[in-house]
Amino acid sequence: MVKKAVSERPAEPPSICEVPKDLIEGNKGAYTPKVVGIGLLLDDSWRTSTSMVRLERYKWCCVRKLVMGRHPDPASWSREVHEPLLGKCFDLMVGLVPQIRASYSSVASDTSSEDVAIKMLLDSCFVLHRLLKHAGKGKGNNDYDDDDWNQQLGRCWVWGTVKRDLLLLSNQVPFFVLQALFKQLGNDRGTGDILVNCGLQLLSSLRPGRLHNAPIICGDVHHLLHLFYLSIDLPPRDWEPSNTKTRGIRSNLSRPPVKRRPPNSKPAHDSISRELLAVPEAELTWWVPCAKELEEAGVRIRARRYGAKSFLDVRFRRRRGILEIPPLELFDYSVPLFRNLIAFEQTYPSTPGRITAYAIFMDCLLKTPQDVRLLHQSGVLLNHMNGQRGETAMGFFSSLCAEAHTSADRNYLAGVMDQVLKYQKRKWPRWRAALVSGYFTNPWVTTSVVAAVILLTMTVLQSFYAVYGYYKPSK
């Protein structure tokens, strides 16, 4: 049944690709695993290196623990019971080799099916063990509790680095392999939902924003990075361009709350591109002034703390001139995280490209340390990165956009940018902002202005009554 289900999957472009060289240049460390390497794009020299041999052995320990289930003690290994199950798992991997190869952009031609099966068995068992162990700990279950925090690499807290390694584009295993292996190991009920929930729990600490409530369909997930991408992306039905040029697309974005998609159907964002293609590219906006210039033009930037489904959920309240951006926290690990998310969008055409569009939008806003300070004071940007606060935040988004390419019809913020530019050109908001900035910045200045207005009013009234009494004296 598993093989039949996999064989019915629609033909799709590879979802696990090598990072383009122009993105890697000068930033190789952001795409290279620090602790654990998995998948077929990993060079064999990595697996056989001195520092990784112990971890490769640990992968075999994960295989043993998963095969033995609730009795991971090596003394409990039974040749009659456990070896047949191990053989079935290996045969399953061999049967999935064609689909596995199709999931990767390139696999060495001299790699045999047996080698692919062994690598997938080891790497998939390692990932499964991490998912189940984390979920088990979250529920107070110690079945997967082992003393492996520092035994393998001689350092504590290493699994935080492992989690970040599991979100590298070239360091992935297909999700359908995890699902098939998990089912083969005797987990028949709710296999997909369990793995999706375990993955979301494992990666929740790295998520840059709150999780939306839209369900994630297991059949839509290609790998862990893609699962993470879906968890931070906007739900399809919530994506609605504000621009009148692109209004009316919402009906194409809604999808029914079903568990599986028809085999030949396409994701909703394919229809987005077709609708936006009707709009001339020259009319779609790809630029907004920096935060300081917007403030001078009367645009107020606020943190959107309520109602946002993702940190990508930016909106502009046109009547009040308020640009609402959900808060975003930046840490040192945010650099490789966002780089790999953008690399995924750059290599997999079926993504809506919202991370790239968001990075370009934020890069427009952050051009000087004053812009960073303004967004920090408004609660939009919370920078926890090492280094100078303004420089790291500016360099963060600038470097993300350096070699990222996308088309104007994929800019989900085109409507917001267009409305901001139109509002910025209005004179009255600019005059009002100058008045507030010059005379109402603090209570003392405000008090002085009010006192001056009162004094001026009294002087005018006194002069009026003096003139009035001169020309019309009382009888």
TrEMBL record:
It comes from the Eukaryota. Residues 241-271 are annotated as: Disordered. Residues 241-254 have a biased composition (Polar residues). It holds the Pfam family DUF247. The chain crosses the membrane at residues 449-471. The keyword Transmembrane applies. InterPro entries: DUF247_pln. Keywords: Membrane, Transmembrane, Transmembrane helix. This is Uncharacterized protein. It comes from Aegilops tauschii subsp. strangulata.
